Structures are given as C-alpha cells and as structure tokens.
Amino acid sequence: MAFSVGRLRSTFEEFDAFSDRLMKEHIAKKTVPSDGPDDDHTKDDFIDVLLRLQQDRSLDFEFTDDQLKAMIQDMFVAGIETSSVTSEWLMVELVRNPRVMRKAQEEVRRIVGPKGKVEMKDLSEMVYFKYVAKETMRLHPPAPFLLPRVTTKSVKLGGYDIPAKVQVLINAWAVQRDPSFWDQPEEFIPERFENSSIDFNSQDFQLIPFGFGRRRCPGLAFGIASVEYLITNLLYCFDWKLPNNGGLPKDMDMTEVYGITVHKKNPLHVVPMLYSP
C-alpha cells in the first residue's frame, strides 16, 4: 500500500507541474507577435478563456491559480478518457457498418464542401452524424454505471423497498439496451433517432450516458463537441477500410474490457486513404 500511495503522490506532483507549465506557456504566448488571424498563437483555447476570466476584476469571487489548475486537471482526467473511448467505439461502428459510414461521409463532405476541414459551426448542420453519435453512446456508454446516488428517504421502486441512505448504482448500459424502450436494442441503427425527441439532455431517461437531472455530467456539451469535431474531420479527410488481413467488417471483434470506462479489448486498426475534395 505504501508503494501505491507513493506512486499516486508522485503522479499528482507530475500532473501539477504539467498544469503549471501549461498555464505559463499560455501566458507567454500572448507576448509573441501575431502573424495574422490564422496564426495559432492568436486563437484562444479552453485555458486562455480561464486565464481571461481569472483577470476579470468584475467577478464577485476569487479565481486562484490552484482553482484554475484544478479545472485544467478536471478537463484532462474527466474529458480525455471518456472522449477517446467514445471516439474509438464510434469509428468501430462506422467501419463495421459501411452503409452508415457512406451516409455520414456524404453528409459531412456536402456540408463542408471544399473548405478542407470541418469547423465547429458546421456541426449543428450534421443531423445524421448526430444520430450516429447518439446510437454509438447508446450501445457503448463510456461509463456503464453512473456515479452513485444515495437515497434521501425510504422509497418503493419497481417492487423493491429501498431504505434511506442507501447507495444506488444506475446501470446505463442495461437501460440503453432494454427492449422495453428500444426496438432491436442490440442493433446499430442511427435512423431510430429520426423524428424522435430523445436526446442526451431530455427527460425520457432511455438515453443517459451523461446521467440526468441537475447532477448529470457537467462536461456534456464539451464531450459531445470534442467527439463530433474529431470524427467528422476524420470522415471528411479520409476514406477508411480494414487492413488486408483484418477480415470482414461484420466479423470485427467487439469484445469489451470493463473498468471505470468500457473500452475495446483489442484496439481498432484501420487504414486511412486521403480524400481530395
């Protein structure tokens, strides 16, 4: 146990130093002369926004360096693992379902045109791709169990008596594959979301990869945008296929490994082929 605690402390110290470096780099880049509006040094990212808020004297609360670092660390710890797992599953389902891949690519390339890359403002127009993202997170919620809840009072639910002050885990994976809510729940069918009000922030509770209510994941918008921006650019810039020895798409290994997140046991291997608009 002493070794584990020491290793944990060392990891946190390294992470803290990394966060310090990030802050200093972003402060320093503001002193570098700009080469124009397309210069990466002039484009604000998440950390730039936080630094600007920290300097805002009109705020009615203190925003310390430690608080800023904590927010940076939250973004890395809570955002990167879940987004990367979801991105891999999304690509897996696209490669496994060539019809869906073609339809999503046609939409992305039609909307983007000859610009050369997807921009954030384009995402709102990509209606079919949003169905694909929803269906991926329905079948593959990054965290199969939502964060624990504790009952505030005794309650009867589904024929069960649940006492007060009991920790309850909600199985999002099971809810999102429940045949009572979903037709052909084990099949990847993005079109099921056409003419449907079901969304990540709806009150229907069939689709809850981010939780629900006031205590749902605060990174919902950030996580969805990160995945959509990455995958739509991959779909725009490249055509994708399995390696020559990769077998048929329908025979792909879909074995899952369980932990805090659920990821693919064997990493996805695909071949990109450059697309020229």
From TrEMBL:
For this UniProt entry, the molecular function terms from Gene Ontology, in alphabetical order, are: heme binding; iron ion binding; monooxygenase activity; oxidoreductase activity, acting on paired donors, with incorporation or reduction of molecular oxygen
Species this chain originates from: Trema orientale (Charcoal tree)
Organism classification: Eukaryota, Viridiplantae, Streptophyta, Embryophyta, Tracheophyta
Residues annotated as binding heme are C217
Question: Where does the chain cross the membrane?
Answer: none
Cross-referenced InterPro entries = CYP450_71D (IPR052306), Cyt_P450 (IPR001128), Cyt_P450_CS (IPR017972), Cyt_P450_E_grp-I (IPR002401), Cyt_P450_sf (IPR036396)
Question: Which keywords has UniProt assigned to this entry?
Answer: Heme, Iron, Metal-binding, Monooxygenase, Oxidoreductase
Q: Which cofactor does it need?
A: heme
The question of whether Oxidoreductase is a record keyword is answered with yes
Specify the domain of life of the species encoding this protein: Eukaryota
Protein name according to UniProt: Cytochrome P450, E-class, group I
Q: Which family does it belong to?
A: Belongs to the cytochrome P450 family.
- Pfam families linked: p450
